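Format notes (please read before filing issues)

Several people have asked whether sequences and structure tokens are stored in separate files. They are not. Every record keeps both together, in the order shown below: the sequence lines, then the token lines. Line labels are part of the format and must not be stripped during preprocessing.
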Amino acid sequence: MEFSVVIRDKKRLYIVVPIVFIALMGIIQSAKFAVADIQAYKARYLLSQWEKQQRLPTETEVEYALDKVSSALNWAPSNTEYMDLKAHVLTYQGLLYWGKASFVELTDEAVGLYLRSTEIRPKWPYAWARLALVKAHRGEFDELYLQALLRANEYGPWEPNVQKTVVDAGLYGWEKLDKVTRMGLIDTIQRGLSFQFKAMDDIVSRHKRKAFVCGYFKVNKKTSRFCGW
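Then the structure lines:
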């Protein structure tokens, strides 16, 4: 009798232990994600402030943001959102050293992170758009730059922030664009004029490309207003 009780207890133990182990692993994993997201939020908030205020960060701000997003990636190394976030922060840091050797070094890492992110999540337009912009900042109007513009347009044609980033990146390399990519950029600007007229006007005017762009437009109320026809 006692022997059969022991056998039953062992069987229960064999069932209970794996269940407890799986539950504990789930709790640990959830805790990791929670910690990672707290760290990422701090970096994300700072970045949103730079964009809202349309300014470059201070060195202290960008180093703090990098520390937080790097910590988030340590907790969740395969999280593409954190990869994109770190790449975005690195781009801002690189812009603090525009024209210096460290700019290339910093943006090398940003490009690498965007490439990893797009391999895992190939249809995420924001990563493609920001990759194109980093390449434009680097003056690299190569196949990867063109591919990034096309993919961003393909996967996020109506996303307002994708539109703005694509137009900015595309106008940097206007003279290097092939026919397909250039027409894709024109289409993006025209879509953007429907819902964010001022933003499109500001970007195109900043690049001093309005006369070139207007030569490709179809005539309608928005383009007539934009081009002054």
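For reference, the curators noted about this record: The radius of gyration is 24 Å. The chain has eleven helices and no strands.
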